Amino acid sequence: MIEIREALPDDALGITIVNVYTWKTTYAGLMPDELIDARIGRIAEIAARRREEIEAGRGFLVAETEHAIVGFCMYGKSGNEDYPDAGEIYGLYVLKGFQGAGAGKRLFREARQRLAAQGRPTLIVNCLAGNPARGFYESMGGVVAGQRQDRMGEHAILEDILYFANPTA
Fold it and tell me: What is the predicted pLDDT for the residue at 169?
């Protein structure tokens, strides 16, 4: 049974391992290998940053089974100036072996409910162009509203912006 709950500071390493592993299994061929592999060497540094974010109250949910983190969701206020009143899911990752078991949907719905309770009923997600997860977001009601360029170090990446309208509108 997978439980969805608010993340605790001690979840930071588990969240980071899920993040690094899912980047390796999902983004290979979609972004340079050096970017993906660099995250592996920075696990301790990234985990320390995640712990600080959780301690500071940033929105994090985890999917847990058998005392292990198998997925997570980071969410909060939109960072896109075109959607200043929207919420944003900054990242939603579930280990490949647990995809399809409903954890992603439950993480998404819980984050969306929490954002709506904060007065942010609309939502955006930036999804790496070519990411097969785009189909997941579309199945959850997202509509591609545009694209944006981002930078990761010296590399430019292209992301689809998915928009989720107010579900009660």
Answer: 42
Q: Is residue 169 part of a domain?
A: no
- CATH of residue 70's domain is 3.40.630.30
- How confident is the model over 137-156, as a mean pLDDT? 91
Q: In whole angstroms, how far apart are CA 90 and each of 43, 53, 57, 65, 169? A: 19, 13, 15, 23, 24
Distance CA 48, CA 12 (A): 7
Which SS3 state, helix, strand or coil, does residue 61 take? strand
CA 136, CA 133: separation in Å to the nearest integer? Answer: 5
- The band of 35, judged by pLDDT with boundaries at 50, 70 and 90, is confident
Q: With respect to residue 8, please indicate whether it lies within any of the assigned structural domains.
A: yes
Residue 67 lies in a domain: yes
Determine, yes or no, domain membership for 119.
yes
**Number of domains comprising the chain:** 1
Q: Which domain holds residue 40?
A: 3-164
Position 28 confidence tier, pLDDT thresholds 50, 70, 90: confident
Residue 34, SS3 per DSSP = helix
Regarding pTM above 0.90, the answer is yes
CA distance 22 to 7: 18
* Mean pLDDT score, 81-99: 96
Side by side, the strands of the sheet bearing 3-6 are 3-6, 59-65, 68-77, 87-94, 123-128, 155-164, 143-152
